[in-house]
Amino acid sequence: MTIWDKIRNAFLLLDDEVEPIPTPEETFIAGIESKGFYYNTELSDITGDRWTRKWITEHGHDSILEVYCKETDTKWIQQMVSTDGEVFYEERVIMDKTG
């Protein structure tokens, strides 16, 4: 094996070990998933990409959904939705501002 073969093989091994850098959207979604959101296939089939989590009162009498809706490639909408489907809070979110 020549020195060139050794160098080429070293780079080929490195390529397999290096993980790809996540896109800003992948990072954003990983951030909201780490906070308990999940991809809601039922809502997403109707209205586009949505990640939700459910908030329930201490005694379980009331609940709301907190929803992230993809608006564009870099903008999302965060909503709070009551059990009867009323949106009572809405805010536009830029992907890198999720904290």
Task: Give me some keywords for this one.
single chain; 99 residues; alpha+beta; 5 strands
Short description:
With 99 residues, the chain is an alpha+beta fold.
Spatial extent as radius of gyration: 21 Å
Kindly report the spatial arrangement of strands forming the biggest sheet. 1-2-3-4-5
Residue windows where pLDDT falls under 50 for at least 5 positions: none
- The tally of beta strands, per DSSP, is 5
Q: Helical element count? A: 3
Helicity, as a percent range: 25-40%
Described by the principal axes of the CA atoms, the overall outline is elongated
This entry's quaternary arrangement is single chain
End-to-end distance, in Å? 51 Å
**What is the succession of H and E elements?**
HHEHEEEE
Tell me the β content: 25-35%
Total number of distinct structural domains: 1
Described by strand count, sense and barrel closure, the largest sheet is: 5 strands, antiparallel
**Overall average residue pLDDT:** 82
| Estimated structural class | alpha+beta
